[in-house]
Inverse folding.
């Protein structure tokens, strides 16, 4: 079973619209959550991290974490064509564990 | 910004041949990782390392070996390449700790014919 599941697989929003991406994990050991973004032809790059319950806002991006339900979301307001990319949710357990577990990704297309 | 480089960027290999993918990082990170990316599977961890001389099996290690001869360098070795290993391979580095970000290289596209 995939330990980190993302939905939807793909998403299309108009320029200026709101994009909402979801992620659910099945491992209660996960304590640290990340969103990574990958533009076509490039390596993934960390977008945001969230480690505590609640919201974390960075510019147009807001991440929300609910540890009780193991649910993480990413909301992008005022979406721009440059936001078109593959978005990965990733999770890690505590301690010195170096491993990140990635979801399969959500492909976001922002149409101008 | 952390710098991770990979070589080669593109590689065509024959079935049964040996392939070595190289990764270098200049940020003195303890941990390094090799992933493969395939459509429908996301990023899957092959091998990782906590420091020079150490290698650990990831989630899909079969058919791959890894080598970490120094803090800066981490190699992925396919002793007997198969067409199923055709993929895009990413190397990453990062510090130890749950909060630590991983920094990815630009990827190597490997085709095994």
């Amino acid at each position: 079973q995939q330990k980190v599941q993302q939905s939807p697989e793909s998403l299309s929003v108009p320029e200026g619209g709101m994009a909402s991406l979801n992620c659910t994990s099945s491992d209660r050991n996960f304590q640290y959550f990340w969103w990574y973004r990958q533009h076509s032809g490039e390596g993934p790059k960390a977008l945001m991290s969230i480690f505590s319950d609640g919201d974390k806002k960075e510019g147009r991006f807001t991440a929300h974490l609910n540890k009780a339900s193991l649910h993480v979301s990413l909301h992008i307001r005022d979406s721009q064509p440059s936001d078109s990319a593959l978005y990965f949710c990733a999770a890690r357990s505590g301690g010195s564990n170096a491993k990140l577990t990635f979801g399969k990704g959500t492909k976001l297309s922002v149409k101008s | 910004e952390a710098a991770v480089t990979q070589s080669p960027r593109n590689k065509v290999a024959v079935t049964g041949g040996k392939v070595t993918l190289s990764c270098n990082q200049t940020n003195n990170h303890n941990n390094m990782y090799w992933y493969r990316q395939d459509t429908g599977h996301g990023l899957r961890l092959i091998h990782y390392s906590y420091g020079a001389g150490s290698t650990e099996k990831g989630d899909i290690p079969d058919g791959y070996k890894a080598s970490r001869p120094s803090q800066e360098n981490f190699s992925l070795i396919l002793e007997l390449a198969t067409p199923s290993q055709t993929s895009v391979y990413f190397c990453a580095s990062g510090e130890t700790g749950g909060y630590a970000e991983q920094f990815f290289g630009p990827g190597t596209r490997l085709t095994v014919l």
